């Protein structure tokens, strides 16, 4: 079994698998109905994120916030 | 006296308390006392708030002390401060000494009371303003409707079946209903501009970092701004000037000296004004487009332009908002999920799962769109766009239909404001009355954003003043 198959184990949908794994990693404990709601919300975020992720930026392009000691 | 604002003299309560500028003049001249203005304000709140649900608490004991101090100053013949005796109220995410800062959330209700006022509240007090209460908002500022599951829905003063917008809905509706001439709110993605648009009042979201956020409950540090609502441009300017100045307690607050705009900000000759098309035209319905056209014509703006990165800026803001908002509340979401409202808790948890690479890419996109906007400001001094895609939706309306495209109301009302706050530009939102398209024939307000380059609030307010004097932008009492 390759790594990709292992991380999506238990769900056919990689997005749902990610949400379940990330919830566990972050210490959340939810029932199935609650997880389903969170998956819907994360799916909306993922759709919107595509607009950002598709932007090609030069390597010199810095993130906006600047730490000022 | 401002033409659109009048003070009644009948046996009942006054239609409105009067403009801040008028109140200061009247108290200075001895025509009214600060204590009597406070008593009228209290009567107005008692008469109108039950219907609208703007206030979550009043601070009348404190207000009494502040008003009496102003009257004492005058009795002693001492100079009065610029907002002497002016009643105002604040969104309930501003710290008020001795009160719990709710930020619209049940999960904050058991927090300890604030030990001191927020910086801008302290500055309003120093300017002589009289704090009368705390105002309702969207839970944790995450949404544009102020349909709060814990503290109730704030209704629109122009139509009680419609919402006030959010997240600073109580702040906009309290001014819109004439209860107070000035209120304070916050704007992360449009939370001053959207409710100002829906309630028909003026609102100023200054440049990111202009006003201190110290002592306010945070939502998204990358985008949080604070600013005033008012029933006139001069009132907005008075409050804005009173709150300016550096504050080392807020790391994002620019350490620059106040740049007062005065009570009648003007627009220098030769100002170049562009009308934002592209994203801002596509997501504005016909009524919103008409509002923009009315403002553009009055300002003699003819040239259309675009921020090509507007959609990406909105997406970047959405991702950063989700991640920072979710991270901020993660531990409490783990411990007391049920105490968060049903409309926000799953969104917050989902936000806390966003990968770091998305957030960093979003912050880079944000910087890139900022640079694009700065190029645009070489050609224009001001930009115009609608502040909301539609007039106030009905309470409970879950979806907006904008030019045949549907979008969830709680997020969609900010579709035209989010790209601008993402890059921190100053905006004055003015209430325009574009007429009605609906079968009811009811005319509702719709705000127009007057957008400046960073630190050019005076141009935004100057253009707002022109529109106000031309009668295009008006505060109308319901």
Q: What are the segments of chain B in which pLDDT stays under 50 over at least 5 consecutive residues?
A: 1-12
**Domain tally of chain B:** 1
Termini Cα gap of chain B: 19 Å
In the CATH hierarchy, the architecture of chain B is Alpha-Beta Complex
Structural class of chain A: mainly alpha
The Cα radius of gyration of chain A reads 16 Å
Distance between the termini of chain A: 48 Å
Describe the structure in your own words.
The complex is a heterodimer of chains A (69) and B (478). Chain A has 69 residues and is an all-alpha fold. Chain A has a domain at 10-49. Chain A has helices spanning 3-7, 14-26, 32-53. The longest helix of chain A has 22 residues, at 32-53. Chain A is elongated and about 45 Å long. Chain B has a single domain, classed as Amidase signature (AS) enzymes, CATH 3.90.1300.10. In chain B, helix 10 packs antiparallel against helix 12 (356-376). The A-B interface holds A 18-19, 22-23, 26-30, 34, 37-38, 40-42, 44-45, 48-49, 51-53, 55, 57, 61-65, 68 and B 222, 251, 311-312, 315-316, 318-319, 322, 330, 333-334, 337, 346-347, 349-354, 358, 360-368, 370.
Tell me the layout of helices and strands.
The complex is a heterodimer of chains A (69) and B (478).
Chain A: H1 3-7, H2 14-26, H3 32-53
Chain B: H1 20-29, H2 34-52, E1 55-58, H3 60-75, E2 87-91, H4 119-126, E3 130-135, E4 147-148, E5 152-153, E6 155-156, E7 159-163, H5 169-176, E8 182-187, H6 193-199, E9 202-205, E10 225-230, H7 233-243, E11 273-276, H8 279-282, H9 286-298, E12 303-305, H10 310-336, H11 345-352, H12 356-376, E13 382-386, E14 399-402, E15 405-408, H13 409-412, H14 418-422, E16 427-432, E17 446-452, H15 457-469
Parallel strand pairs in B: 2-3, 2-8, 11-12, 11-13
Antiparallel strand pairs in B: 1-3, 4-5, 6-7, 8-10, 9-10, 9-16, 13-17, 14-15, 16-17
Helix pairs in contact in B: 2-3, 5-6, 10-11, 10-12
């Amino acid at each position: 079994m390759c790594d990709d198959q292992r991380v999506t184990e238990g769900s056919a949908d990689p997005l749902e698998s990610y949400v379940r794994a990330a919830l566990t990693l972050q210490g959340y404990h939810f029932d199935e109905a609650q997880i389903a709601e969170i998956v819907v919300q994360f799916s909306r975020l993922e759709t919107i994120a595509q607009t950002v992720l598709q932007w090609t930026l030069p390597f010199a392009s810095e993130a906006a916030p600047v730490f000022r000691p | 006296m401002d033409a659109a604002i009048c003070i009644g003299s009948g046996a009942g309560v006054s239609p409105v308390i009067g403009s801040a500028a008028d109140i200061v003049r009247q108290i200075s001249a001895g025509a009214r006392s600060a204590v009597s203005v406070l008593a009228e304000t209290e009567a107005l709140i008692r008469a109108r708030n039950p219907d609208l649900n703007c206030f979550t608490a009043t601070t009348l004991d404190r207000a009494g002390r502040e008003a009496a101090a102003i009257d004492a100053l005058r009795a002693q013949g001492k100079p009065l401060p610029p907002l002497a005796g002016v009643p105002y109220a604040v969104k309930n995410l501003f710290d008020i000494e001795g009160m719990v800062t709710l930020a619209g959330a049940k999960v904050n209700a058991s927090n300890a009371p604030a030990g001191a006022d927020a910086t801008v509240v302290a500055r309003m007090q120093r300017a002589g303003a009289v704090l009368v209460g705390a105002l309702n908002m969207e839970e944790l500022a995450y949404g544009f409707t102020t349909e709060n599951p814990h503290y109730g829905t704030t209704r629109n003063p122009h139509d009680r079946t419609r919402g006030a917008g959010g997240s600073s809905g109580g702040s906009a509706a309290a001014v819109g209903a004439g209860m107070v001439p000035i209120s304070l709110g916050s704007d992360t993605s449009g939370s001053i501009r959207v409710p100002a648009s829906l309630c028909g009042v003026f609102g100023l979201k200054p440049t990111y970092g202009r006003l201190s956020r110290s002592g306010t409950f945070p939502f998204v540090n990358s985008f949080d701004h604070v600013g005033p609502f008012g029933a006139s441009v001069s009132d907005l300017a008075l409050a804005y000037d009173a709150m300016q100045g550096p504050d080392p307690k807020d790391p994002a607050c620019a350490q620059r000296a106040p740049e007062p705009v005065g009570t009648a900000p003007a627009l220098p000759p030769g100002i170049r004004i562009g009308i934002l098309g592209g994203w801002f035209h596509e997501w504005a319905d016909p009524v919103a487009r008409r509002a923009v056209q009315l403002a553009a014509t009055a300002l003699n703006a003819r040239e259309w332009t675009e921020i090509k990165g507007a959609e990406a800026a909105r997406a970047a803001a959405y991702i950063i908002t989700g991640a920072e908002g979710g991270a901020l509340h993660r531990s409490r979401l783990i411990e007391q999920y049920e105490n968060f409202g049903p409309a926000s808790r799953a969104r917050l948890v989902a936000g806390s799962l966003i990968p770091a690479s998305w957030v960093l890419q979003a912050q880079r996109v944000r910087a890139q769109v900022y640079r694009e906007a700065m190029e645009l400001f070489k050609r224009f001094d001001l930009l115009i766009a609608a502040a909301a895609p539609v007039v106030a939706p009905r309470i409970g309306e879950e979806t907006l239909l904008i030019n045949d495209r549907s979008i969830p109301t709680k997020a969609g009302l900010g579709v035209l404001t989010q790209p601008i706050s993402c890059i921190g530009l100053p905006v004055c939102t003015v209430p325009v009355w574009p007429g009605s398209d609906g079968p009811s024939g009811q005319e509702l307000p719709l705000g127009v954003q007057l957008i400046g380059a960073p630190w050019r609030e005076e141009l935004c307010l100057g253009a707002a003043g022109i529109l106000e004097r031309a009668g295009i932008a008006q505060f109308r009492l319901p």
